[in-house]
Each structure stands twice: as structure tokens, then as C-alpha cells.
Write the C-alpha cells for this entry.
Amino acid sequence: DAKTTQPPSMDCAEGRAANLPCNHSTISGNEYVYWYRQIHSQGPQYIIHGLKNNETNEMASLIITEDRKSSTLILPHATLRDTAVYYCIVLSGGTSYGKLTFGQGTILTVHP
Amino acid sequence: NAGVTQTPKFQVLKTGQSMTLQCAQDMNHEYMSWYRQDPGMGLRLIHYSVGAGITDQGEVPNGYNVSRSTTEDFPLRLLSAAPSQTSVYFCASSYGLGRSIEAFFGQGTRLTVV
């Protein structure tokens, strides 16, 4: 599975959009981009995933560049409860067997 | 729907003791896995299973055993606890091949080995 690079920390004002970047320059054609978050030592929580197209759900939007070498997770209206560590993970849908490789992630702090 | 349930939530062991961390899921997921998380670190995969009767090693398997006799349960056994195994342990489950690999995690077991 391709390696990912994320900034170690980011800040965001409450109510504003939080844009979390992720680089995955060695991603291959059958690999998906997944985002998880972990709130204060709880179990990680799935947010969203995508292959090529941009995706949106009730939690967030995922923007993947055309060359698929990077992506951005967007929390449109960040709240204090969105303060967490966000992990960008790349894995093959067919052969990963559910194995997730967690890096250091990005610590997002949402300020009042 | 309980999701993924881990027991116990907290445990203190003495060096050399053995114990089993329990993990159960009620979503009929094929894949189950165990991770450990040390302070300030990301999660690391210990063992995983792609179905009942099938297990394999992850990144940090030494000192741990697993078995998968049923789809629902995936216990993690510490054979002889060491202080280096002090960590938070997470169990996860997900659907299998060809389906979305959205993993569901338990709330963790916080283990201290003294």
C-alpha cells in the first residue's frame, strides 16, 4: 500500500471549513484513499473514502486531484467536537484484507 | 446493534502473567484485526483474520496469539506479559473482499504491565 504524508498539526476556527491535506504520490490505480479520525484515545472512526471522484457524505467531503497524488479532506463547518487526530490511509480494496496502516496523522484543533 | 465490543476496558498485569483480551462483533463481518497504540503513536497491526479459522500476522505479532473459531469472536492472548506490552489495544472488524473496507473499531482495552 502507498505511503502517505500529512502535516503534523493544523488549527481551525469553529464554524469555518477545515481542509486537511494528504500526499500519496506513489498511489496505484486500484488503491483507495480512506480517512479516519480518532477523538481523544477512542477507537478510530471511519469518515470517508474514494478512488478517483470527489466524494461527499454527512460528515465530510473528499477531494482527490486528477493525478490522484494528493487529496484533501474537508470538514465544511468545523465544531469543537471535530478536534481529533485525522489519518489518511491508502490501501488496495481487493487485497488489503482490512489491514490499515496508520501513520502519525494530523492533529486538528478547532478553536472557539 | 452493539458493533465491536472489547472487554475488559482496563487491565493491570504483572510481568509474566498471561491473559486474553476479548473482542466480539455482531455485524457478521469477515475481517477482524487487532491493533496496539503506544502513547503519541499511530496504531500498529498485531494480527488479523479474514474469516473463521484463518489468521495471519501483522506488523508486531511477537508475544501475542490469536484464534478465530467463530465469525463473531477474535480473542487476543498475551502469553507472558512484559512491560513493553503496556499499550492501548483496539479490535476492528470490516466486511470482506469486494465490499467497502469501512472498519469499525472497539473502544479499546488499556493494558498496563508492571
